Amino acid sequence: MKNKLISLLLALLMLFVLSACEAPENNSSAAESQAESTPMKYQSYDFTVWDENGNTVHLSDFIGKPIVINFWATWCGYCKQEMPDFQKASEEFPDVVFLMVNATDGETETVEKASAYIKENNYTFTVVYDKFYDAINAYSVRAFPTTYLIDREGYIVAATSGMLDYESLKKGIEMIR
Length: 177
Fold this sequence. Notes:
Glutaredoxin; alpha/beta
């Protein structure tokens, strides 16, 4: 009896999983065009990070302005390659907050190492240090670089993992301005 019950439960579970994987039918072209023209927005997650001097910084400190959050590390080659484009964009769009969140584990990546890299390259955007991975966990970052674009109201408008070039970054910024 117990085996039959388990088999029945497994069969019901499989039916549930399979039905969840099917694409819903939608014959409305108006709904399709509406979905294409209106990006989905998700509320951003607040987090606590630190500036170079050890002061706490929260994402919520910047709500009211468009925000570009970039998760990076000095050991990440793609992160280093895209930094000049972020610098250029930060100069071109002074109304946008560029929050460059360093994955500071205290061993491979330290505040001192990351700060030295920023100074050597004369980057002027805001750099913060995620010492306890509060931001990285809040945004489920699994690869570097990862970038989130947040509008003035605090909604995530777009996100991407991987290196961004200047033109792609610029298009993303236009979405949140």
